[in-house]
Amino acid sequence: MGTKLYIKTYGCQMNEYDSEKTVDILKEKRGIEVTSNIEEADIILLNTCSIRDKAEAKVFSELGRLNKLKVKNPNLKIGVGGCVATQEGLNIKKRAPYVDLIYGPQTLHRVSDLLDIDQSKGIKAIDITFPIEEKFDSLPSPTSAGPSSFVAIMEGCSKYCSFCVVPYTRGDEVSRKPDQIFDEVARLAEQGVSEITFIGQNVNSYKMPYKDRILRLSDLIEIISHIDGVERIRFTTSHPLDMTDDLIDVYQYVPQLVSQLHLPVQSGSNRILEKMKRNYTVDIFTDALERIRSHRPDLRVSSDFIVGFPGETEKDFNDTMDLVNQIKFDSSYSFIYSKRPGTPASKLDDNTPMAEKKERLDILQAQLNKHHKEHSMSMIGSIQRCLVTGLSKKSAHQLQARTECNRVVNFDFQNIGFIGKLVDISIDETFSYSLLGTLHNSTGQN
Ligand code: SAH
Ligand code: F3S
Asked: For strand 77-81 and strand 101-103, is the pairing parallel, antiparallel, or unpaired?
């Protein structure tokens, strides 16, 4: 019987991608099998997130539970990876001495070597360095797990927003070599993947020399749009400051690029944006959206918001609400500011009571939800181009698809061959988390 790996992923899409790659590497190097039953695992890896204190606290409570499994099975290996590993390093061993290995987001390709270290000789199995290029060079050939796949194009972040730990946990920005990206997309497309999502902490600051020019995100999008089988292209996350003209123009000439954009704004108050070191104003943000809308009037925009940043006044919060009411965002994320050790914002005075911050978050989320619902309602009767992603979770007679704005649509089907294809669906009904529709063209298109 092969070695069984249980891997648990916290946090962002980059962590999901990293977990998939860790599995691929351990399959290649050690022939492991993945199990969803933690009790039977020989290796347990936690791929952690430290963006907010709650995410970090979850990891330590999970480690407490894992200790019991270790008592039952002393051969069990427990590893902590991801951003908490980089942030806390050997402190993890102080709080949970039974942890066998500690690796960061950029050293997941060395996990197999860390597992082999004989710690009885006093060598510690820890590696939280930042060999990002080596990591990209070590990734095995990608395998698809459905019609939609992430492709990392860069890693890390050099923006150093005053509240954020990412530059410290993932390191400064490094762009991936263009040939690796094109090769990964082509291999995924050969396996039937039709939707590619470029991922990274700041994908629109991508910059890499290639042949005799410098490639940017806009070039990557344009180039992969010519790869056979690539029907849909997304990217996340991007920064408002890097919404350059070339990227805006690409909406005009690459039809596969979806009319949906996730663009974190964080706050609608220029005063707070400055304290956050975001380096843009609300006008720069709205201007970028307007310019994309000149090519795509139907653009849907989602965003990230932080409420209760140190010193946020009622007026600052109202500025955020004004922006929300102006843009009418779709499917956004919002959080109460969380003080992260080592960040410049952690030193700022913060006098707003938590109860008030929670109240602001409730007001913001109610409005974001209202707009999300209104967007869904406005789709009733319309025909949406959808990517069929698999069988529906609701009924054996239905397939599940996703609209350009990433809503789940369930619809009755006659042909299972639609999976992985783009089809037109007319929208009949809306629910909180999904839509119900009817297949409009029954041929399915490639
Ligand atoms: N690269 C993205 C951010 C990635 S982190 C960008 O350009 O903004 C994902 C989201 O987590 C951020 O957009 C922010 O809204 C939230 N976040 C980050 N640090 C936070 C903190 N200290 N407290 C609360 N929310 C935070
Ligand atoms: Fe964090 Fe700002 Fe970068 S939110 S990931 S430091 S753009």
From this structure: parallel
Residue with tokens 């762009």: 175
* Cα 53 to middle of ligand 1, angstroms: 12
**CA of 438: how far to CAs of 154, 175, 205, 433, in Å?**
39, 42, 40, 17
Nearest to 12 by CA among 212, 229, 197, 287: 197
Which ligand has an atom closest to residue 12 CA?
1
Q: Which of 202, 238, 273 to mutate to test the pocket of ligand 2 (most atoms within 8 A of CB)?
A: 202
Q: What digits encode the pLDDT tens for the residues 183-199?
A: 999 999 999 999 999 99
pTM for this model (two decimals): 0.95
Cβ of 202 less than 6 Å from ligand 1: yes
Sheet holding 148-152, edge to edge: 148-152, 195-199, 232-236
pLDDT in tens, 244-287: 999 999 999 999 999 999 999 999 999 999 999 999 999 999 99
* CA of residue 168 to ligand 1 center, whole Å: 13
CA 299 to chain centre: 20
Q: Is 50 in the pocket of ligand 1 (CB under 6 A)?
A: no
Give the separation between CA 425 and CA 437, rounded to whole angstroms.
6
